[in-house]
Amino acid sequence: MRFARVTFLLPCLLTAQVPYERIVNADGEPGVWLTYSGNYQGHRYSRLAEITPANVAGLRPLWVYQTNNPRTEVSPVVVDGVMYVTEANNVTALDVHTGRSLWSWTRPIPKDLQTIGFGRTNRGVAVIDELVVVGTLDAHLVALDAKTGAVRWDAEVADYKVGHCITGAPIAIDGKILTGISGGEAGIRGFIDAYDAKSGKRLWRFWTIPGPGEPGHDTWTSDAWKTGGGSTWVSGSYDPDLKLVYWGVGNPGPDWNGDSRIGDNLYTCSLIALDADTGKLRWHFQFTPHDEHDWDATEIPVLINGTVRGQPRKLMAMANRNGFYYLLDRATGEFLLGTPYAKQTWAKGLDDSGRPMVLPNSAPSVQGTLVYPSLQGATNWFSPSYSPKTNLFYVAVREMGSYYFKGEAEYKPGTFFAGGGERALDGDQAWGAIRALYPTTGKMIWEFRLKSPPWAGVLSTAGGLVFGGSNEGNFYALDARDGKPLWDFQTGSSMESNPISFFVDGKQRVAVAAGRAVFVFGLAGN
Amino acid sequence: MARLIGSISFLCLLSAQAQTRAPQSPQPSNLTAQDLTRGKQLFEAQCAPCHGIQGTGGKGANLARPTLKHAADDAGLFAVIQNGIENTGMPRAWQMTDREVWLVVAHVRSLGRVAVENLPGDAAQGKALFRSQGCGACHIVNGVGGNLGPELTEVGARRSSERLRQCLLEPGKALPDGFVMVRAVRGDGSALEGIRVNEDSFTIQLRDLANRFHSLRKQQLQTLEYKLEATPMSSYRDKLSGAEVDHLVAYLASLRGQR
Question: Contact at 8 Å (CB) between A522 and A489?
Fold first, then answer.
């Protein structure tokens, strides 16, 4: 009997572990967590419902994995009993039952490597077929064999010596691996790349700063486009039906002194929709033209369907770093809605096209200009979540203002190209919240207040919970309907990460990184 | 692209390797006003994006403090700037010459230290007053004293004489950063008052006036009141003469951490 069963299973084992179709249908397989955000649509929502408001008080840590990074921001990927976690230039495969390592791959970090404006970290992998793909600090994209960690291919994405770097998780789609690039404080020219999943050969590159002769180039003065920033340092989302890739673009450079780059500075602080096959721009929407506050638009684009003003639409929702919540038609890029979801003092509002009506005296100055939100934004790279069960959009919000200073900016390859800085209001002057917004209006339904502006994203579940993390080390669960706190656990370190959920032998688990460790939780007795 | 490097203190993570590399050129003496301005410019261009324009921290550590825990001296700070700190966002400053690094060292050292002022009072008389008024019952100086109030061993390096004077005359308006007294009413109706020691979104830790620690879960409290400007320290406005206040300020200003 046992032999017969093994024979029956063999054909399955010989097929590709994670074919593209399996990722497309991720929502139909709630026990795994196949992409950075759980699905292509950026929902960070688990369809598992074992852990509920009624029993979450019994949630306990089951195992802990210690990385070598002082701080890990990884959002693990879990497939077929294996969890893939990353550190800077490292991927480790863990047994989900025990947290014991199955294999570990490390690429040495060059001695002369510098991360300009951020820490040495990595947020996760993409999986497809038999591959686990990761970006490295020295700007390589590396595909590893999922069973052994052996290198299948290694592509040099860009030159790390002038500030290029990869910290975000790639996206794997049909036959392609997509990656963004970091370096927005080093005066890089940003891009999004697609690589052939089989060979690692580059298929296309979309420059986020248009070159001479390209549409949008006239939004830059003189040679400013060459060092214009526009990094793409967080993952994007994907619509498999429209075959469009949605990716947020970072700030223009230099950050806080825009004198050398008069104009809107496309496509910085924008969302771009690219044809997945060709990398051609289908549409763009710029949230913050001529940004001088470092308000990257690199937040996760959340793809949902809904009815706006009586018309059913395919939507893209984003809680932007600039303090506004936006709703766009994701097929056309049409602006549908924009409303503040946090305190902001820089814009009177948005006009009918979604362009901000900027208030006077909100630009950085030599003596310092107080503006809300702070440089780190009303939210940042950590993920929001959309629950189809409650039909609510959950976002971790930073209520914090900042004095913005304007300084000199001189471009030297491989150094800061920033032109100023900030002095943030902190201590008891700053606070945070998890807010639940009604997705088609942006109206706040509830909020749960946090002691300080958070650096951890949220996960919502079909069990009716929202999980989040705090700077003070609390990992906690809220009631998804009203935000009531139901459970919390002290992890012992500030949390700068996103939670996930998956099955182990049919039992629901929740995992999150805190400090240098990855914690896995389950109900007591399971 | 800028992000928090959080509560990670760059300088606290200074690696042993970084400390071993000595500067090739010696620390310049007699820096001119122009040198200091250059150090400030370099800091603003290369360090301020993470450490804040006034060095008070942001993504990087707060450098506006008199002692930097793991950069004990200027040479240690030079090494941190020149070599960076491994496994953190603190890059090495390969683009700066040794002399430029020294100018940045001078600027960073100036951030957290109040300059020595010429004051009307007499520090020796102030020290005697500190003793006779019983200040040591609540404050530690150089390892000696009570522990209800903040340690004052290096208070003169961190606080201007004006602020020190305010601490004596209107202590509620010159509280230490983050200091707050709270009053909590528990589920059973019993009240507890004390100094906040730590707090997160779910719990708060207090030290009561009998110096006992308490840990409370916020959800189990009926009320939690933050008593702004409250302090166990009383004003010395009516207890000391103007000259005595001057002496005490001069003594406190002389406490600069040198033991």
Answer: no
Q: What is the pLDDT of residue A170?
A: 98
Measure in Å the smallest separation between the Cα of B55 and chain A Cα atoms: 8
B181-227 CATH, one of 3.30.420.40, 2.30.30.100, 2.130.10.10, 3.90.226.10: 2.30.30.100
pLDDT at A6 over 60: no
Architecture per CATH, domain B11-111, reads as Orthogonal Bundle (1.10)
Strand partners, A84: A77, A93
| Chosen from A293, A375, A490 to mutate, greatest number of chain B CBs within 10 A | A375
A14 band by pLDDT with thresholds 50, 70 and 90: very low
Name the fold adopted by B123-175+233-254: Cytochrome Bc1 Complex; Chain D, domain 2 (1.10.760)
- Coil, helix or strand for A415? coil
Split at pLDDT 50, 70, 90, the class of B259 is: very low
What average pLDDT is seen over chain B? 86
Confirm whether B11-111 and B123-175+233-254 share one CATH topology. yes
The CA radius of gyration of chain A, in Å to the nearest whole number, is 22
Q: How far apart are alpha carbons A1 and B144 in whole angstroms?
A: 79
DSSP-derived 3-state class of residue B127: helix
Which chain B residues touch A474 with a CB distance below 8 Å? 200-202
Query: Would an 8 Å CB–CB cutoff place B15 in contact with chain A?
Result: no
Nearest to B104 by CA among B133, B79, B125, B85: B79
CATH of domain A36-523: 2.140.10.10
Residues of A labelled as active-site residues: 294
CB contact under 8 A, A70 and B8: yes
The pLDDT-based confidence of B4 (bands split at 50, 70, 90) is very low
Q: What is the mean pLDDT of residues A31-55?
A: 98
**Model confidence over A415-469: pLDDT tens digits?**
888 888 888 887 778 999 999 999 999 999 999 999 999 999 999 999 999 999 9
- Cα–Cα dist A75/A69, whole Å: 14
**Mean pLDDT computed over A219-247:** 97
Distance CA A122, CA A442 (A): 31
Residue pair A112/A118 in contact by the 8 Å Cβ criterion: no
DSSP state of A185: T
Separation of alpha carbons A410 and A418, rounded Å:
9
CB atoms within 10 A of CB A33: 28
Is B48's CB within 8 Å of A405's CB? yes
Chain A's closest residue to B95, CA to CA, is A415
Q: What is the number of other CB atoms lying within 10 angstroms of the CB of residue A344?
A: 19
* Residue B11: per-residue pLDDT: 33
Is pLDDT at A187 greater than 90 in this prediction?
yes
> Cβ contact (<8 Å) for B8 and A71?
yes
The predicted pLDDT at position A229 comes to 97
- State which residue of chain B sits closest to A113, comparing Cα positions: B91
CA angle (A140 as vertex; A137, A141 as ends), nearest 5: 115
pTM for the predicted model, two decimal places:
0.89
Residue ranges covered by each domain of chain B: 11-111, 123-175+233-254, 181-227
List chain A residues with CB under 8 Å of B3: 117-119, 376, 380-381
Checking if the pLDDT of A13 tops 60, the result is: no
Q: What is the model's pLDDT at position B2?
A: 44
